[in-house]
Write a structure and sequence with these properties.
With about 210 residues, the chain is an alpha/beta fold. The chain contains seven helices and ten strands. A hairpin with a 2-residue loop joins strand 5 (about 100) and strand 6 (about 105-110).
């Protein structure tokens, strides 16, 4: 879905790109990927073992990478990630979302599994994508601009990952009442969007 936006592949900045950059800077060589298979090609510079690539008997990975596995998550996979982290692997996540909108309603997102691993291992995860403010700053920088050039606006349906994360990075956070938007979350949360839109279509209608 393009929503009328003409965007080239090289203009897209993803959490996988941010995650790979972090692992590279950290000197990580072996990664246990708990991410969709179509993401693995973006991690080709690392040795991948365990996780969705299948069981491994060793060596243990330097890092565990958590992504959007959705219904693929089960006890065995989560326990495998737990054991790697307990044995010293870094806990790295592509994003920290709480929930997302599936085909038949809201579903737990990667952030819930990251929180479970943090609780069980007493290790803090490095979140490379949303809501990490550095992710938004890096995305803005990839466009050749800086966050002090107003107005830079993040439009999304998630109060915490989209709106709050963007605001913490110095951007404006606009919330849309579509996707996984929930009125109760907006009313009870301390997060206050800079604007609330009925849908992203309003951007074109307003000429913004």
């Amino acid at each position: 879905m393009s929503f009328g936006l003409d965007v080239a592949d090289e203009e897209v900045f993803t959490a996988v790109m941010a995650g790979a950059a972090f692992l590279r800077r950290a000197g990580v060589r072996t990664v246990a990927p708990f991410v969709p298979e179509d993401v693995l090609e973006d991690l080709a510079e690392f040795e991948l073992l365990g996780g969705v690539t299948g069981p491994t008997t060793g060596p243990w990975p330097d890092a565990v990478l958590i992504g959007d596995l959705g219904a693929r998550w089960d006890h065995a996979l989560l326990n495998e990630a737990f054991r790697y982290v307990m044995d010293g692997a870094r806990l790295v996540a592509l994003q920290g979302g709480r929930y997302w909108l599936g085909a038949d309603g809201i579903e737990l997102d990667a952030g819930a599994y990251v929180a479970a691993l943090e609780y069980a291992t007493e290790r803090e995860a490095v979140i490379c994508g949303k809501p990490n403010p550095e992710f938004f700053r890096a995305a803005v920088a990839s466009m050749g601009v800086t966050t002090d050039r107003p107005p830079i606006i993040m439009v999304g349906d998630d109060l915490w990952s989209d709106v709050e994360g963007a605001q913490r990075a110095g951007l404006r956070g606009w919330l849309v009442r579509t996707g996984k938007f929930r009125p109760d979350a907006l009313h009870s949360s301390r997060v206050r969007p800079d604007r609330v839109l009925e849908s992203i279509a309003e951007l074109g209608e307003r000429g913004e």
